[in-house]
User: What shape does this take?
Amino acid sequence: MSRQPLTLLKSHFGYDRFRPLQEEIIAHVLLRKDTLVLMPTGGGKSLCYQLPALVFDGLTLVVSPLIALMKDQVDALNANGIAAEFINSTLSASDVARVQREAKSGRIKILYVAPERLAISGFRAFLATLSVSLIAVDEAHCISEWGHEFRPDYRNLKLLRHDFPEVPVIALTATATEKVRQDIIAELDLKQGQTFLASFNRPNLTYRVFPKRRAFSQLCGLLQHHKKESVIIYCFSRKKTEELVQDLSAEGFMALAYHAGLDHTVRKEAQEKFIHDETPIIVATIAFGMGIDKPDVRLVVHYDLPKSLEGYYQETGRAGRDDLPSECVLFYSYGDKAKQDYFIQQMENEAERKNAEEKLARMIAFCDLQTCRRQFLLAYFGEAAIEEYCRGCDICLSTKEEFDATEIAQKILSAVIRTGERFGMGHVIAVLRGQKNKRILELGHDQLSVYGIVNNFDDQELRTIFGLLLSKGLLVKQGDEYPTLAVTPMGRTFIKQRETLFLVRPKREVASVPAREKGLVDYDPGLFEHLRLLRKELADKRGVPPFVIFGDATLQQMAAVFPRSLEELSCIFGVGRAKLQQFGEPFLGVICDYMREHPHLTRQTPLPEGRRSRTTLRQGSTFDETRMLLLQKQSLQEIALRRGVKEERIIYHMERLVEAGEKLDIAYLMPLPARVNQIIAAFEKCGGTLLAPVMTLLGDGFSYEELRLVRLYLRQKER
Ligand code: ADP
Ligand code: ZN
Assistant: This one.
């Protein structure tokens, strides 16, 4: 068996390509060097040790704190035909003994263990009897006291390192500041190792911020777009999650609540139902997520304002781990900010309070942005800019319009100056709009000349314009805690010289989600649904989550290319050898039935090139499409029209297919029998297969296309 990484990737995981950095990391691990991997959630970290585990002779030991995830990971590996087991507190003593026996016998390639085991000397003595070739430390940030998820048990890893001084270590994490990174390297004593830092950009995620107005009906609209798909909705409080679940249920959405106040079994059940595709929607506090590895979450909603961008990034990161397009939507209101402020003010420790204030200020800045949200997010995490328009946030996606902002800008800047440049946006807006709140009256701001001079913009629109003036450099924010606005020298010049000012703003439109892209391929939704049902059935039979059988991307590709044989099926993304054997037949069955019921279906997308596809058909795509249309007995004219090429080109496809050993049924395309006989006779007379002499012999009244068809017919008959 080949031990080439790329070959193993297809045969065991069913994938054709590595994700960014995976290949480099794996090559490094295979040199038996220590490695530190920093990759965002969904980046594909697991593969970085799972694939080397297949190459190495002995066993790969994986230390992970997420006990709840171990079973899923092991199930997924087993489904791919890889011998894996786990040992943690959920196993009975006899099961532990069985796994230990199997590990000793050398049958197991990948063994997951919980870190607390490593403190038990008996367990370490057992490990010492194994031939360990690689140690992987998942969620490696847990080793650092600086991290937010410090696990004292992780200090036991030092012992492991001591027991296996020669064995390379690969440490992996999605969250690591420089400090945490240093800690990991020091604590694990990563020698002459290398750090691989992947981009934290998640191109398949779309980020949107909606003003929190009629939020519930907007939410229902969103959920309508994501019917039957997995959705996580984050709320600020436990109470709110339960209320929202009730409201959603009343609207006919199946949803469950999840928060730390619920009974353990209730919580576990909610999580299981979510993972097993029984309840599509989870409404949760941020307590939900750590133990969730569901790859096909299509929408993450923040119904309330998150406390920090770190949290926001981590929570939105749970969307679309499988790389398919997924959405992140945040509902933002000023009231939410005030609520958070209130909680922050209750904090006793001053340093903590300051920290929380700063974090919240960045979060608010993100919400108020008039420029690309992805840029801002990545810059926050210290990553260099990507292209100017990311095509994946509401700002970049919105249609823009230019408008003459001279007058409104004059009014805003004057109001900032008149109020003494000591107030935040909210207050200045209230003054401009002529509101009668207590503060305004107390300060006497209702007496100012700028009081109530704006009536053609609402609060949200004014916020947008403030944002534009900030990014133009006419206004500036001062102070982090309660930022106040001031007019810059440039702003003052603008007021004095009364220049005209054009600004670009998002077009006024109802906050709605544009039609979601259907995925990477244009697939048949009906067939996709059938395939999902089969997946669920097979998963239930085995007691594993559906995504362990096949991911959405795999089913979508099946529903686009309609594979008709095991060989064709093996070319599909995510179909490795083991899964082909276990699940190939039932999935082909469903596809065949569906095709029979829908005879007009044609392949929307070319069959992907499998690793073993016959070389003569390497351009398979276009040839295959022609073949499919021929199978449906379409006329040459129809096929040519449909493919947008000349009929000759279609005949050329047929010739190539036949050359490659395909058998085509072309009898229905033949000219009338009398003509066919004439042509055959002419070919015989001329000898050989050249067309020109035959044409000359037959004279006018025959076409080259006819001749070629007959030649094809003869060629097939010869075989
Ligand atoms: P992480 O641990 O970094 O969050 P995972 O290892 O769980 O990410 O991988 C996320 C998803 O991506 C999984 O469903 C995994 O099967 C898939 N995946 C990993 N590598 C590849 C690849 N090279 N091609 C396609 N899918 C991949
Ligand atoms: Zn953008």
Summary: The pocket of zinc ion (ligand 2) is lined by residues 372-374, 390, 392-393, 395-396 (CB under 6 Å). The chain has five domains: 5-197, 205-397, 400-506, 525-597, 622-717. The radius of gyration is 32 Å. The chain has 32 helices and 17 strands.
